[in-house]
Amino acid sequence: MDQLVQSIIDSLKNAVPAELIIFLISLLPILELRGGILAGTLLGVDWPIAYLICVIGNLLPIPFILLFIRKIFDWMRNTRFVKLVDKLEAKAEKKSAKVTKYKKFGLFLFVAIPLPGTGGWTGALIASVLKMRLKDSLPPIIAGVLVAGFVMTLLSYGVLGSLFGWGG
């Protein structure tokens, strides 16, 4: 992830402000908030600003995923992207076992613990696969993103930041 974040930074840093770079990274699947916070440290953005931008960037696509991903997948099944849909659904199904037992709290924990393969995007995909309603899935995902952002900010700007001289 570090190399991908650095590549994005290198390609954009002379063209757009640092805050926009971390916002764009936070919007992306896989990188999400974790990548945005890392980019914030590497670009020297103050932690409160980076946290806020990354949380907003990570949360922005979530309601759309929850509302429309099933319809998008159904449409994609009739295209050459059917294998991609199957792969994404299989990934969500595999990870959903961790969420199924505890439903909302499980979804919150899944999103809140900032590990590879977790986050708002995957949490929303899991909620969709489990056919959770928007009102039942959105609050735990939002809470999970807030907590994951706090943990990543603490690690990147605090503990890891002091070890490697990142951030402000």
From TrEMBL:
<keyword id="KW-1133">Transmembrane helix</keyword>
<keyword id="KW-0472">Membrane</keyword>
<feature type="transmembrane region" description="Helical">
    <location>
        <begin position="49"/>
        <end position="69"/>
    </location>
</feature>
<dbReference type="InterPro" id="IPR009577">
    <property type="entry name" value="Sm_multidrug_ex"/>
</dbReference>
<feature type="transmembrane region" description="Helical">
    <location>
        <begin position="20"/>
        <end position="43"/>
    </location>
</feature>
<keyword id="KW-0812">Transmembrane</keyword>
<dbReference type="Pfam" id="PF06695">
    <property type="entry name" value="Sm_multidrug_ex"/>
</dbReference>
<feature type="transmembrane region" description="Helical">
    <location>
        <begin position="141"/>
        <end position="166"/>
    </location>
</feature>
<protein>
    <submittedName>
        <fullName>Small multi-drug export protein</fullName>
    </submittedName>
</protein>
<feature type="transmembrane region" description="Helical">
    <location>
        <begin position="105"/>
        <end position="129"/>
    </location>
</feature>
